[in-house]
Amino acid sequence: MKTILNLLKTSTLALAIATTAFAQDVRDYKWRADINNHGWKIGTAGGPMATMRAQRFATNPTRWVTININHVAQLDNLDQGDALGADRADFYAMIWVDGQVYKSKNFSHDEGNPNWKLRVPVNDATSTIRIRLYDDDSGLEDRDDHVDINPAKGEKDLILTFDAATGQISGDATGTAGTFMTVKGGGDDDNGKISFSIQ
Q1: What does the buried/exposed string (b/e) look like for 55-72 if buried means 16 or more CB atoms within 10 Å of the residue's CB?
Q2: For 128-146, how does the pLDDT look when each residue is reduced to its tens digit (9 = 90+)?
Q3: Angular region, 37: left φ>0, alpha ψ -120 to 50, beta rest
Q4: Does residue 7 have a pLDDT over 80?
Q5: How much is the average pLDDT of 165-173?
Q6: Mean per-residue pLDDT for 109-126?
Q7: Residue 179 neighbours by CB under 8 Å, 6+ apart
Q8: Cβ neighbours of residue 98 closer than 8 Å, sequence gap 6 or more
Q9: Beta strand extents in the chain (DSSP E only)
Q10: 140 vs 46: CA distance, rounded Å
Q11: What are phi and psi of 105, to 5 degrees?
Q12: What pLDDT, in 10s, does the model give residues 13-43?
């Protein structure tokens, strides 16, 4: 019974940490270049827990997971009322893999192929992956636009489970390892579209 209670406490703590990381604003992270990925940055939220988590995923990984975002597009005009009149989206992605967050470089097109490729170390056969898409407003507005890429109302990010043993991808999109999936937002503002693969 005591063992079960300890497991429940551990699971609850892990869920709380993951939820906090996902909810955190992009400006709250400390970003540095990720040595494994040209053009990507790796983020920590500060404090010993975040540092330990980042070190755990960087030390002696048992396998690697690769996420390739090959196409993004705005379905709503993300820069309406732009004071400079540029009227162009400046996309970037944030991806969490098992709680560790990564940030892509910007891609300044309303639609196109950024070919963001992220290769990250993991320690388990099954990984939880969250994909978030932003439109960078370069400080002209209070916050960057959080692009809706989830078909479900009330959700904007994609939360996925990747099983490396079977190659199955489940969650807000379903597919198999190495196969490109295309999803688009629905039911919320700032709708966009994204195509990606995981392997």
Answers
A1: eebeeeeeeebebbbbeb
A2: 999 999 999 875 556 899 9
A3: beta
A4: no
A5: 98
A6: 95
A7: 197
A8: 57, 122, 123, 124, 127, 128
A9: 30-33, 41-44, 63-74, 91-97, 100-103, 111-112, 116-122, 126-135, 145-147, 158-163, 168-171, 175-176, 181-184, 192-198
A10: 26
A11: -80, 170
A12: 444 444 445 678 888 899 999 998 999 999 9
C-alpha torsion 28→31→36→39, nearest 10: 100
Q: Is the overall model pTM greater than 0.85, yes or no?
A: no
Kindly report which listed range (32-36, 57-61, 87-91, 170-174) carries the lowest average pLDDT score. 57-61
Count Cβ neighbours within 10 Å for each residue of 112-150 and write b for 16 or more, e otherwise. Answer: eebebbbebbbeeeebbbbbbbbbbeeeeeeebbbbbbb
Separation between Cα atoms, residue 42 and residue 35, nearest integer Å: 9
> For tokens 């009227």, what's the residue?
87
**Total count of residues recorded for the chain:** 199
